[in-house]
Specification:
This protein is of the alpha+beta class. It has four helices and four strands; from the N terminus they run E-H-E-H-H-H-E-E.
Length: 125
């Protein structure tokens, strides 16, 4: 079994206030203040799925798809981009749903807030 991950680092503005930081006396982040983030997209495949070229899928094409999605994630503050409350959990699930039709055997999407060292991984059950 092979497990492949493709990763992209970028800056994102979530746009949500943090009541937890306030309760614990941690200085507030401005709602539009950017976070360093990383998107990791994983897929799996079996040995017998390797093609004549020695790979399962053309990662150049996946790069194009993932770069397009990252452009959507970074275009504006998430509270302006999404019609739902854009927590890292909900955006991870949304990202998975966007990629599921383009990436065969997609296993997970992980969205990490590098500024806070918190990773959220979504995979269907």
């Amino acid at each position: 079994m092979f497990r492949i991950e493709i990763a992209r680092k970028f800056s994102v503005r979530q746009g949500l206030p943090s009541p937890v930081r306030r309760v614990h006396g941690v200085p507030a982040r401005l709602p539009g203040e950017p976070f360093a983030a990383e998107l990791r997209v994983g897929f799996t495949f079996a040995d017998d799925q390797l093609g004549d070229r020695g790979w399962f899928i053309d990662t150049d094409e996946l790069d194009r798809v993932i770069d397009g999605l990252v452009a959507e994630l970074t275009a504006d503050t998430w509270t302006e981009t999404f019609s739902f409350r854009p927590t890292f959990e909900s955006v991870s699930r949304w990202t998975y749903e966007q990629l599921a039709t383009s990436i065969p055997q997609l296993s997970h999407v992980e969205l990490t807030n590098l500024s806070l060292s918190v990773a959220t991984r979504y995979s269907p059950m």
